[in-house]
């Protein structure tokens, strides 16, 4: 196995399932639909709502979030149309979530 094949299957050479972070009780899957600026994005959540989500300070320079990324968001208790982003999935991880039926 050389190059892209090894990368696609992981370092161990097996193409098995990867354990991914799943949503906790107060979190929901979402897809980024629009970049609003000022560390804010528009997301479409798995529960059918469209929310404005904040990118927290600890993620701003370390994790780059783009349109069509799959993320976990934590909706606000006091204002349902807003949320905080808690996790961003890599493209391969998002594909695995789609294959397993967790997201569409």
TrEMBL record:
Gene3D superfamilies: Nucleic acid-binding proteins. SMART domains: eIF1a (SM00652). Residues 1-15 have a biased composition (Basic and acidic residues). Keywords: Initiation factor, Protein biosynthesis. Residues 1-22 are annotated as: Disordered. GO terms for molecular function: RNA binding; translation initiation factor activity. Residues 16-90 form the S1-like domain. It comes from the Archaea. SUPFAM superfamilies: Nucleic acid-binding proteins (SSF50249). Seems to be required for maximal rate of protein biosynthesis. Enhances ribosome dissociation into subunits and stabilizes the binding of the initiator Met-tRNA(I) to 40 S ribosomal subunits. Belongs to the eIF-1A family. This is Translation initiation factor 1A. It comes from Natrarchaeobaculum sulfurireducens.
